[in-house]
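Dear colleague,

Thank you for sharing your sequence with our group. We've completed the structure prediction you requested, and as agreed, I am returning the results in plain text so they can be pasted directly into your records. Please verify that the sequence below matches your submission; if there's any discrepancy, let me know and we will rerun it promptly.
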Amino acid sequence: MIFDTDIFIWVQRGNKKAASKIQKSKNRYLSIQTYMELLQCAESKAQHKFVKDFITSYGFTLLPLTENIGHRASIYIEEYTLFSGLRSGDALIAATAVENNITLISSNAKHFKAIKDLRFKVFKP
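Please find the predicted structure tokens below.
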């Protein structure tokens, strides 16, 4: 399963349901976009270390940005932004999931549900 940025934020806020989703997942993935968003939101070097340690300790596989992911994300922006509010970061995360044939989990259903070729699981905190 590929985890959207919001799942990590729920974990940082102490949400046990989000933590359980991560713990129960046998294969844990995150896109480079999610990784950058998590580091960007950190307010200190200590928070950077926390993010890196968390990702390492749970054995997440970091999925890189590829030409195909970039192309697919640009198509998603063109097709879905006007009616669903899809932003470029979410388009990259969705495209990463589709290109790697992995289900995406997020509580942000509004942006992702419109994408027809995305396997999507809604997280309800």
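Summary note from our side: The mean pLDDT is 94.

Kind regards,
the structure core
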